[in-house]
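The records we work with from here on pair a chain with its fold. A complete example follows; check for yourself that the lines match position by position.
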Amino acid sequence: MAQKMAYQCLVCGTALEGPLGLLFHVFGVTRSKHNPNVCNRCDAHIQDGRVIELSVLFADLTGFTEMTNRLGPDRSYEVVDEFFKMANDMLIENNAFIDKYIGDAVMAIFNAPIPNSQHARGATTAALGIQAGLKSVSETLGLDLQARVGVATGFARVGRLGSTDRKDYTAIGDVVNLASRLEALAQPGEVLVDGKAFAQVKDDYPHLAPEEINVRGFAEPVEVYRIGKLDRENAMIPAQQADPLAARQSVGLGTVLFTIFGAPCAIATTLSPLAIVLGLGSFMGAISPIFDTLDAAPIRIPLQLFAVLGAIINLYVIRRGNSHRGPNDTNELTVLEKHKINFVAGLSIFALLAVAYETYVHIFVLGMSYFEPGL
């Protein structure tokens, strides 16, 4: 199945295809390896977030240990690889962030970092797609493959965990444990969904009755719904929803400048090396009149114009990035990112003040035309 991918980053709106996509690619902006619907800079700058509501999906092949013993490592590897390819397509199509692969299992989260108010529907739809997709995988491999899938909705802390050498974006909370437990309790070919997640798809399955089960690690019984093959086939057709992958936002000059000069991630608002260079260039352009050899108007004026332009671009990038950060954002700036932003902002403000001062000195103090060579 051909994988459908978004035209723009679903987090910050940066173009990933078309002429602008090619331009941004030159500046290092590409699709994320974790989810091609997100740009690599949004992916790379995802830092410790807050506790948010999200949906978690666990899916794995049933009887994997027995299958490995029967088929051997090479054939088992081929089976798992085909399963992951199919599952990956289903997850990404429903705006999932693939957290990790564990043996023959996959974990994915919905609503972080890609915001999605219908994250439980997305997770359930992806789970049902994985079950349906196993039929074609089985036919391709000549095997009878089945999977168990668990879906749960709740609150978790999202962020990057790991050592100083490597950190991975993940979610920590009871909802993760619950989804994992539900996957283990599901029957082969079944999707086991907790009551909170099922609330977003209940109109599609009006005939399903709730069930309470005891889940290891949880003091109270958990309300769940079992969606089997017949339930999938007899489901009510949901109302047509807008396809977020097909939507294209308008791209203005500000977006282009933000992508090239600033951190092309509207969430993290970090600054690219080009912004640092431009900030330093603004600084040098501002102080150039203190050197006699650079005080001639043909040299001084272009340098000062460059300083003003660079300072305005940098300040605009920083302001635009901050305006995209709301009180409920799931990502926070690191100390290093804050230092970089303050550094460039300081250079830019100094550049504007220095140019204003030099202009004042040349016109009012030295009593000379601004366009005449320096003394």
